[in-house]
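Continuing from yesterday's entry. The apo prediction looked reasonable, so today I'm repeating it with guanosine-5'-diphosphate included to see how the binding region is handled. Same sequence as before; SMILES copied from the compound registry.
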Amino acid sequence: MKKYPMESIRNFALVGANGSGKTSIAEAMLFNAGVTNRLGKVEEGNTVMDFDKDEIEKKMSISLSVANLEWNKIKHNIVDTPGYSDFKGDLISSLRAVETALITINPVSGIEVMTEQAIKYADSIKCCKAIIINKIDKENAKFNEIIEELSNICEQVVVPVLIPIGLGDKFSGVMNSIIKKAYKGGKEINIPEELQQDVDNWHEKVVEAAAESDDSLMEKYFDQGSLSESEINFGLKKSIIQCNAIPVFCCSATQNIGVKETMNLINHFFPSPKDISEILVTKNGEAESINLGNYDKKLGYVVKSLSEPNFGEIAIVRMYANSLTTGDEIEITEKRAKDKIGQIYYICGRSREETTEISAGDIGGLVKLRNATTSLSITEKGEAIIVKPISFPEPVYWKTIKALSQADEDKIGAALSKITDEDPTINFGMNTETNENIVSGQGEIQIGIVQKRLKNRYNVATKLTEPKIPYKETITGKADAKYRHKKQSGGHGQYGEVYIKISPRELGTGFEFVNSIVGGAIPSKFIPAVEKGIVETMKNGILANYPVVDICVELYDGTFHEVDSSELSFKLAAHHALKDGFMRANPILLEPIHKIQIVVPTENMGDVMGDISSRRGKILGMSQEDNKQVINAEMPLSELYSYHTSLKSLTQGKGYFTQKFAYYQKLPNDLAQKVIEESKRGK
Ligand SMILES: Nc1nc2c(ncn2[C@@H]2O[C@H](COP(=O)(O)OP(=O)(O)O)[C@@H](O)[C@H]2O)c(=O)[nH]1
Ligand SMILES: [Mg+2]
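Holo prediction written out below.
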């Protein structure tokens, strides 16, 4: 397999909304480069990138995949990503592995949620951007309107460099605004008269963007009103690399119009790994930037790890500095764990080609590594560097997961830990308060796929149910209580008596035990048993079997018996005294409240606000951002569990939210009554 120097590599990720044609564009590129000899179709399930069984069945990408091709001596590493917000973990991960985000737009639906999120994530890690407006052959496709919309939402200057000749069924070719030339069927043609003005206008824009990248170009542009072709090329590329300009292309992936011209422009204008030598890292926990040119250790990043029985275990890796070779010893920074490099491959969809190294700047696959899982960094021992760190979003969707057959219950943990290794946005763990296994993530589709994979890969059938709420119990009043535990059964008896005062503490401050016994009313050796009796009773709950929190128990008196008193007797006395006193001290249930931030299109505001209040939510503030509203609110967890589904349906999929636990608060009496009754029934 051929090795490419850094300057001959272009790494880019196809990102953007579902159905905008990312997989189809990759397919057309691979076909044009001769990697495939026919143009696969997503609907027919024969594309290079959507090779997974679930992807073929659903006719959409659900996991990122990579492919490579050579175009005019330049190697393109293409990362195709899923466009559903449920899989935004893959979007985030892919952008950390490439120099350029190629954001795909469907010109009929315009700027969608995932388009904006892709732009935002790319900006947050200073990933260069380019945009491709696909599906120009579709009825009602727009171009100029999309450019205008993009100019409004992007911080950078948006410069159309490939402009469509005709829209919808009249789409027949493209024009290059840099060199002012038109192409149809791969051949140069004259620019159609009616489009001459457009090309001239866009050309002006390109020249301005190029001039702005460099002082000397700017001067020349002011003096002479124009720049030479090589100056434009130099300036525009610099602007793109500095994240000051976003070039826009257009195409029809399925008709393969504009794709070759796009590939030419990728060669010319996308940065090579050599062009971006400064990258952000954290080293020993501190944020810093390093210059890869001077960095003499191995540095890489695991874009995605896959463990599919039919496909094997493979980690897709982007090398940033130096090359990885078979036999190398590496360290996975986040786990501080060692691994040894075995076989190395270049990956193209489902197929692989064996090689001996992944050189700096390139992307390849490593097999049988134990620790190299999605989003982790590869370093040398003791380096402790994390590449382009970014946090993955908190879950917005939760389910309790249970094996259908009790025998499989033990298998769930190991199988899920493999599945969650592939996607850091999926979480799995036991909620020790409710004793349930909870799987959580970014949405229904993602968790549905998890369930499917458990069945297909590990043969574990499961059921998903709504998780229980981890309520807690506390009191709002004070009470005095005493209890004498006395038992005489033949020989040795049991005896212990305690007097306690219980009072509420501020929420969140925990439990306090005060021993104010004086004069040996209870011998000190039995005091720990009293506290233990209290703590155990609190753990199991009194009102409705939820743990008791934030109370103070003062042990102030008691009696004992020389022979019959024992630790057990005092534990039992404490248990009964607490139960009795607690019920007389105005017990209440507490429920978890989460802070949420919701982003919705302005036209859905009314419905969304109504829904928040019907979910006992509280609005904390609102602000307008472009054509959207950002709502800060609080919502009880019991209502949050179903919120993802509801918000999606209220906003036709356009609304989204993030959330975080905030605090516990009193559950209203009517609801508390229901919970108490349910708990009694469950007993
Ligand atoms: N008419 C037309 N359809 C397209 C084009 N590109 C993709 N499609 C279709 O749009 C659908 C979604 O495409 P896909 O590549 O899966 O989009 P992705 O979700 O962004 O990967 C598929 O049915 C494609 O055949 C295009 O340029 N023109
Ligand atoms: Mg796709």
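Comparison notes:
- The chain has a mean pLDDT of 93.
- Residues 279-387 form a domain with the Elongation Factor Tu (Ef-tu); domain 3 fold (CATH 2.40.30.10).
Will overlay with the apo model tomorrow.
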